[in-house]
TrEMBL record, chain A:
The keyword Transport does not apply. SUPFAM superfamilies: WD40 repeat-like. Residues 193-206 have a biased composition (Polar residues). Transmembrane segments: none annotated. Pfam families: Striatin (PF08232), WD40 (PF00400). The gene is LOC106465174. This is Striatin-like isoform X1. Keywords: Calmodulin-binding, Coiled coil, Repeat, WD repeat. Residues 40-167 form the Striatin N-terminal domain. Residues 58-106 form a coiled coil. Residues 400-419 have a biased composition (Low complexity). It comes from the Eukaryota.
TrEMBL record, chain B:
SUPFAM superfamilies: Mob1/phocein. It holds the Pfam family Mob1_phocein. It comes from Limulus polyphemus (Atlantic horseshoe crab). This is MOB-like protein phocein.
């Protein structure tokens, strides 16, 4: 976002540099005949300018760092707060559970006169959350009688006014965090030298180290360039010109300053300054190590020079002001791009870290956020404590740099050195430092671009150590916290909870494995539901039944059902058009139309009514748009193309047909298989090759056709043994993987088989059910496979390792048939099954 | 009779065997719970009435049949709405079938298909009364459709016998003269 100013700035300075060079060249032509493009004052000015610029930059970085550190501290505080809240809630839950258990035991005792199995009590499973925080070895607690349980409950109830305590604890936690901060950052520094220093260990050496490390690539490049350009001064100037510098103005004063600094022996170490490209720089380099020492040892002297320099600032008339405004203020504006540049990290690494940071943030966001007021309260505490704690990050602007404590000296020095003399710079500085005040806005924005760059940082800083445990917190802290919460002996209570995993947030650390549960029951059909199809976006589905109708269901319109876990849904529309059972249904990719095939040999095209339609609205004949006639027997399978509105149908008349339902001559092609292939049972477009389709026949053959030519291009290597009843080998459903060249076929012989459609070879075969597999569905990402069978169950398979992830018994048998169809919602976490018992069920 | 859907299976099998043999279709197997038997038959009637509704959709439109009538004696009000209203005949038909589908599948009134509460059995009568109007409307206003449908399914005949046998509707409400002359009646009317 600040690229504009940066380039502007550069070009402006290049321009002035050009003229400056011209002047210098003219005046000193005789004197420096051999080096016509070069002048000492120019170089000095340049160096001085560069030095100043770097000081400014450094200041900015420090400000940024302070900002980030404060932010980190804040986030950690927030996290702690959340954790406290969480722990508190867990504590409450556990106490209630405990009381419940005791009551149950009591009840059991009263009813049966025997003790409830003590093992139940002893089965105190420590969930992940509490493992860290609660002290182990509390088995004695598990045996406390119900009286004690009551006692504890009472104790707990007394605590109901806990909110104040929690807030107090939170603020104290934040203080703890800040107190601990230096510790941590020091250790972090050891791990990663490029990390930002701890607040209190701010000193020049590490600072330069850091910068040096950060800038290594460019630096060495500059040094190489230096050696080369010894010979070609012109090139040097080109190089110079490419950097934003200004050597036009105030040559005299700059010179004087430069000499001053030379005399003082305090010329700033320019090691990390990539723009020094003269003999003078070599001198500087020679001095480098000394300077390093000097800088370390003689902070005071450095400070003096710095101050001199800063006083020089105002003296150096208009030109310098201009330069400064270009340089300094421009710097502020382009700080973020600079930041990225200077950290010398590759864009990928940055984006990676950003992502990491975001993810971390998101994860944090999934925790329940505290109320805004609570945040503000914490914020206030944070700023207070940061003041108290020796201003660990120098967050507050300091205008008396020379009196500040050693720990913060260098920072305030650099801070004033360049920023305080120009009002605008100052204000910006102040603005930058007033970050605490900005926290609210920062939070409000989420991650504004500015913070994004910081986020890169933050990611590195906070999560670089690769541990998810609290960065600042430690075990003893948690114990402290527990005691401060007044947990007392309650801390020991960990009543086992069978449903623990339900709210165990830390479980999300592992790969999220969803367990599907029946949520909606769709009852309104009079006979078996043969097929179903989801809307591409909305929680809407359509079912096709043997009762001659299709019904449209909106899962958001449920009927309150008493005491059952699943909700009943009533249909919002009933499609009547088929004379006879409806056998298949599919929905267009837009969700505007659906198509159904029936026992009456027809395919009907329907316009989907609005999902908020009144079920008892008047009849709209426009819902049924057209009837595709052509098949001479029942239409058993349909498949719609994912991008264009083409429809494949397969029928008991032995043909597969391709339709374009919207045009008048809707039948595009008819595909015939050989006689002994039998009747097509299922058909699907090949998703990874839009010019092909696959059809499966009841002879257990599966063929791939070219849609254009109608030729059979490949015959899949399906099981073709004629020894047993051929009907038991038939394929009931064939589906194509959304991305891979893979088709999956459901067999009457309880198998699911996988075929590579580039070779036609079978790649995997498994006995998947206890009865015929009737239907298959692949999730939109192609990671999971859902199968349904007449054994009444639907099974979810991991596509990777072909293992069953979940089995759900879903429907009842009718005429020895149970499940007719299964489906994944294309964009929402729903799966559905349709059964012979006239029900459809939706799982979430 | 081992499954929850056995009664439906039984009914559908006998229908498939010979749809015209109304008496056999309506003869329950031994030991069959009468409530379930009635309930499953009514489900089957509503199911098959969808076929008549599909046929009516093509001909019975709101312009010609603005009200649900059979004879001129009654105008039937559609009970699917909060306040019953005069729906056009086709809407009445659809709404009645949709409403019946919801009621007969209601988890509240018919949570099970193997045992039906006595209070819920009482609901069957009103469903019968309403769906019968579809027959009567078709008979008096769309005779061709009615005859075509009846020749295929013998549904009205079966329905009439069914409600008479189980006393689900008063006799004088059965205005379609389908049983007047026993089997020949249908022919002579056509």
């Amino acid at each position: 976002m600040d690229d504009g100013p940066v380039t502007q700035n550069t070009s402006g300075q290049i321009g002035s540099l050009g003229t400056g060079v011209g002047i210098v060249a003219k005046t000193n032509q005789d004197e420096y005949n051999q080096r016509p493009h070069y002048s000492i004052p120019g170089i000095l000015h340049f160096i001085q300018h560069e030095w100043g610029r770097f000081e400014t930059e450094r200041t900015q970085w420090e400000v940024e760092r302070a900002e980030l550190q404060a932010r980190i501290a804040f986030l950690q505080g927030e996290r702690k707060g959340q954790e406290n809240l969480k722990n508190d809630l867990i504590r409450r839950i556990k106490m209630l559970e405990y009381a419940l258990k005791q009551e149950r035991a009591k009840f059991h005792k009263l009813k049966y006169g025997t003790e409830l199995n003590v093992a139940d009590f002893k089965g105190t499973v420590y969930d992940d959350l509490t493992k860290d925080e609660f002290v182990d070895g509390d088995l004695s607690n598990s045996n406390v009688s119900w009286k004690q349980g009551r006692q504890l409950l009472r104790q707990y109830l007394q605590e109901i006014g806990y909110t104040d305590t929690v807030i107090d604890v939170r603020s104290s936690r934040v203080r703890n965090l800040l107190g601990l901060a230096p510790h941590l950052t020091e250790s972090d520094e050891k791990k990663n030298t490029s990390l930002v220093n701890g607040e209190q260990s701010l000193n020049r050496v590490t600072d330069t180290q850091r910068r040096g490390a950060g800038k290594k690539p460019t630096n060495s490049a500059a040094e190489n360039a230096l050696r080369e350009t010894e010979a070609s001064v012109l090139a040097t100037f080109d190089f110079l010109a490419s950097e934003n510098i200004d050597i036009e103005d105030d040559e005299e004063e700059n010179l004087r300053f430069a000499f001053d600094s030379d005399e003082n022996g305090e010329e700033r170490n320019m090691e990390d300054n990539k723009r020094i490209i003269s003999q003078q720089k070599i001198i500087a380099k020679n001095n480098k190590t000394e300077r390093m020492d000097d800088l370390m040892m003689e902070d005071a002297e450095t400070e003096e020079v710095l101050s001199e320099f800063s006083f020089l600032g105002p003296e150096s008339a208009n030109g310098s002001r201009e330069a400064r405004s270009l340089g300094d203020i421009g710097e502020w504006e382009k700080s973020e791009s600079d930041c990225e540049e200077e950290w010398g990290t590759s864009p990928q690494a940055i984006s990676k870290m950003m992502e990491e940071f975001r993810r971390e943030r998101n994860r944090k966001d999934t925790f329940q956020r505290p109320k805004r007021s609570a945040l503000q309260a914490m914020l206030a505490t944070l700023s207070n404590s940061s003041n108290e704690e020796n201003r660990p990050s120098s967050v507050v602007p300091d205008n008396s740099p020379f009196t500040s404590s050693p720990s913060s000296m260098s920072q305030s020095q650099s801070g004033t050195g360049f920023s305080c003399d120009t009002p605008s710079g100052d204000s910006r500085f102040g603005e930058g430092l007033g970050l605490l005040a900005n926290f609210d806005s920062l939070l409000g924005f989420g991650i504004p671009p500015e913070v994004n760059t910081n986020g890169v940082h933050g990611g590195n800083l906070t999560f670089g150590s690769g541990s998810r445990c609290p960065l600042l917190g430690s075990k003893c802290d948690d114990e402290n916290m527990d005691t401060s919460l007044g947990l007392g002996e309650l801390a020991g209570i960990t009543v086992s909870n069978e449903a623990e995993s339900c709210y165990d947030i830390s479980a999300s650390k592992e790969a999220f494995r969803k367990t599907w549960n029946a949520k909606y029951t769709l009852r309104s059909h009079f006979d078996g539901v043969r097929a179903l199809a989801f809307h591409p976006e909305e929680p809407v589905l359509i079912t096709a039944s043997e009762d001659h109708t299709l019904k449209l269901w909106n899962l958001q319109k449920t009927v309150p059902a008493k005491k059952t876990a699943s909700l009943d849904v009533e249909p919002i529309y009933t499609f009547r058009g088929h004379c006879g059972a409806v056998l298949c249904v599919t929905m267009s990719a837009t969700g505007e139309q659906c198509f159904s095939g029936g026992l009456d040999s027809t395919i009907k095209c329907w316009n989907l009514p609005n999902s908020n339609i009144d079920p008892y609205d008047s009849y709209d004949p426009g819902v049924i748009t057209s009837t595709l006639k052509g098949h001479s027997d029942a239409v058993w399978g349909l498949s719609v193309h994912s991008s264009k509105l083409h429809l494949l149908s397969c029928s008991a008349d032995g043909t597969v047909r391709l339709w374009s339902p919207q045009v008048k001559a809707s039948l595009l092609h008819t595909y015939y298989a050989e006689k002994d292939d039998g009747q097509p049972a299922s058909v699907d477009f090949v998703r990874c090759d839009p010019a092909q389709m696959v059809a499966a026949y009841d002879s257990s053959n599966a063929l791939i056709f070219d849609l254009e030519t109608g030729k059979n291009v490949l015959r899949l290597d399906t099981i073709n043994s004629s020894s047993v009843n051929p009907l038991s080998k038939q394929i009931n459903r064939i589906v194509c993987h959304p991305t891979l060249p893979l088709v999956i076929a459901a067999y009457e012989d309880k198998n699911i088989r996988f075929f590579d459609i580039t070779t036609g070879k079978m790649v995997h075969s498994m006995v998947a059910h206890l009865d015929a597999v009737t239907c298959l569905a692949i999730d939109p990402n192609g990671l999971y496979l859902l199968s349904g069978s007449h054994d009444c169950s639907i099974r979810l398979w991991n596509m990777d390792n072909k293992t069953c992830v979940q089995e759900i018994t879903s429907h009842r048998k009718k005429f020895d048939e149970s499940i007719y169809d299964v489906a994944f919602h294309p964009s929402k976490p729903y799966i559905a099954s349709a059964g012979a018992d006239a029900l459809a069920k939706v799982f979430v | 009779m081992d499954s929850t859907l056995a009664v439906q299976q039984f009914i559908q099998q006998t229908i498939r065997k010979d749809p015209s043999n109304v008496d056999e279709i309506l003869t329950p197997p031994e030991g069959q719970d009468e409530g379930v038997w009635k309930y499953e038959h009514l489900r089957q009637f509503c199911l098959e009435l969808n076929g008549l509704a599909v046929k009516l959709q093509n001909e019975c439109n709101p312009e010609t049949c603005t009200q649900m009538t059979a004879t001129e004696q009654w105008i039937f009000l559609c009970a699917a709405h909060k306040t019953p209203k005069e729906c056009p005949a086709i809407d009445y038909t659809r709404h009645t079938l949709d409403g019946a589908a919801c009621l007969l599948n209601s988890n509240k009134y018919f949570p099970s298909r193997v045992s039906i509460k006595e209070s819920s059995v009482a609901k069957l009568g009103s469903v019968c009364r309403r769906v019968y109007r579809i027959f009567s409307h078709a008979y008096f206003h769309h005779r061709a459709i009615f005859d075509e449908f009846e020749n295929d399914t013998f549904l009205c005949r079966r329905f009439t016998v069914f409600v008479t046998k189980y006393n689900l509707m008063p006799k004088d409400n059965l205005i379609v003269p389908i049983l007047g002359d026993e089997t020949s009646m249908n022919e002579s009317e056509a």
